[in-house]
């Protein structure tokens, strides 16, 4: 029995299973895949670079400790994002306490939160980028041209750039989007 | 009135982008407008994906921070192997390497003999280096062996969490794991119904 190194196409459940077997590559793939969300959560909660780096480590340390108890390995990304939020909020509470006791200023920091909806949006951005990397360069470029570029290019420009008829753009976009939605799969909670 | 067939994703996307034209337009609008849950879900997924594309990639964390998180795994992975419920952790009794001068390295062709206790069994093994690869040849027998024991089991060499070799024990409890690259291994096995682990086991000319 042999396994290959973790790839970007490996789903989270496989990566978690391989981590629990001691696979370094699978762990590295998890950190690479979900690290940007952890970093973004810390950033959105206004942590300094140094504190964000601490939260990054404490989040992955918690993940390491708790990985074998994650109920839904397929949704481990969402669980890690929530751990990151929890760790970040702990640090933020420290900011507020420090300011109140040392500088006698209002604890405005404690009002900063990251609602579940925003957390899901961050996770979605991360998932979509991963999916764009798996649906083929042409599809990914077309979807980026249509929905990321600002200003959005005209259909004439897109037709010229991609060497397709204007009438093909709609059906091609739909096929590419279906591929991407297929890659995204269903969203569930891990724990 | 709702249509029986749901609009295609293409139609929903065109409707969203204001590009739906022709005879489908009224049918799609009517269908969606009638409160079709399936279409509402599909449209929401589409919209969510489009919004995520429009937002662009998340900023990447610094490489040094990522590397640190990646490295923290190594110590923990041995704990997972060793702490599995019901698994016997082999206890090293003898390692010939330890009898040598500490600075002395293993060399090609050299044999390193080891002995572990695995519950009621003994695992004796000899590691032989052969120019970049190694063999582990050994035998597992009951500690109180009277020469008539029939041993049943298997042994598996794991590296980085991956199985690189797995073989059944022969009737005498013997095994030979060949063609192993130099590195750090765990030996997982079952003997007479008991699961055991030997880890970590360093193999190579620096071991």
- Given the structure, what is the number of helices of chain A? 8
CATH topology value of the largest domain in chain B = Immunoglobulin-like
Secondary structure category of chain B: alpha+beta
pLDDT averaged over residues of chain B: 84
- The topology string of helices and strands of chain A comes to HHHHHHHH
Principal-axis shape of chain A: globular
Which CATH architecture of the largest domain in chain A would you pick? Orthogonal Bundle
How far apart, in Å, are the first and last alpha carbons of chain B?
Answer: 77 Å
How would you characterize this protein structure?
The complex is a heterodimer of chains A (191) and B (207). By secondary structure, chain A is mainly α. Chain A has eight helices and no strands. In chain A, helix 6 (137-147) packs across helix 8 (166-184). Chain A is globular. The model of chain A is unreliable at 102-111 and 187-191 (pLDDT under 50). Chain B has two domains: 9-55, no CATH class; 73-203, Immunoglobulin-like, CATH 2.60.40. In chain B, 28% of the residues lie in helices and 37% in strands. Chain B contains five helices and ten strands. Chain B has helices at residues 9-17, 24-33, 37-55, 63-71, 73-82, and strands at residues 88-89, 91-95, 111-118, 121-130, 133-142, 153-159, 162-168, 174-181, 183-191, 194-203. In chain B, helix 1 packs across helix 3 (37-55). Chains A and B meet through helix 1, helix 2, helix 3, helix 5 and helix 6 of A and helix 1, helix 3, helix 4, helix 5 and strand 7 of B.
């Amino acid at each position: 029995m042999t396994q290959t190194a973790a790839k970007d196409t490996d789903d989270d459940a496989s990566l978690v299973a391989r981590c629990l077997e001691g696979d370094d590559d699978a762990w590295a793939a998890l950190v690479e895949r979900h690290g940007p969300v952890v970093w973004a959560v810390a950033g959105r909660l206004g942590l300094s670079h140094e504190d964000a780096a601490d939260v990054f480590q404490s989040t992955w340390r918690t993940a390491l400790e708790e990985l074998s108890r994650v109920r839904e390995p397929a949704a481990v990304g969402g669980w890690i994002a929530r751990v990151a939020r929890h760790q970040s909020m702990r640090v933020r509470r420290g900011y507020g306490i420090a300011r109140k006791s040392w500088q006698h200023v209002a604890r405005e920091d404690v009002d900063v939160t990251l609602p579940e909806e925003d957390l899901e949006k961050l996770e979605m951005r991360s998932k979509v980028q991963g999916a764009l990397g798996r649906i083929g360069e042409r599809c990914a470029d077309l979807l980026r041209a249509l929905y990321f570029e600002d200003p959005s290019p005209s259909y004439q420009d897109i037709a010229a750039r991609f060497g397709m008829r204007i009438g093909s753009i709609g059906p091609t976009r739909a096929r590419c989007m279906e591929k991407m939605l297929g890659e995204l799969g269903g969203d569930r909670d891990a724990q | 009135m709702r249509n029986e067939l749901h609009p295609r994703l293409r139609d929903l996307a065109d409707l969203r982008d204001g590009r739906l034209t022709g005879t489908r337009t009224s049918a799609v609008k009517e269908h969606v407008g009638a409160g079709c849950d399936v279409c509402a879900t599909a449209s929401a997924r589409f919209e969510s994906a489009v919004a995520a594309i429009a937002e662009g990639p998340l900023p990447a964390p610094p490489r040094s921070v990522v590397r640190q998180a990646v490295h923290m795994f190594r110590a923990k992975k041995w704990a997972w192997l060793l702490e599995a419920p019901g698994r016997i952790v082999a206890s090293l009794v003898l390692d010939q390497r330890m009898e040598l001068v500490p600075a002395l390295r293993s060399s090609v062709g050299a044999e390193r003999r080891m002995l572990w206790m695995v519950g009621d069994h003994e695992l004796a093994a000899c590691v032989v280096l052969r120019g970049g690869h190694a063999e582990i040849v050994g035998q597992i027998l009951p500690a109180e062996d009277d020469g008539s024991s029939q041993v049943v089991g298997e042994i598996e060499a794991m590296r980085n969490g991956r199985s690189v070799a797995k073989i059944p024990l022969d009737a005498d409890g013997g095994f030979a794991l060949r063609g192993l690259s130099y590195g750090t291994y765990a030996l997982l096995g079952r003997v007479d119904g008991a699961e055991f682990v030997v880890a970590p086991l360093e193999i190579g000319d620096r071991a």
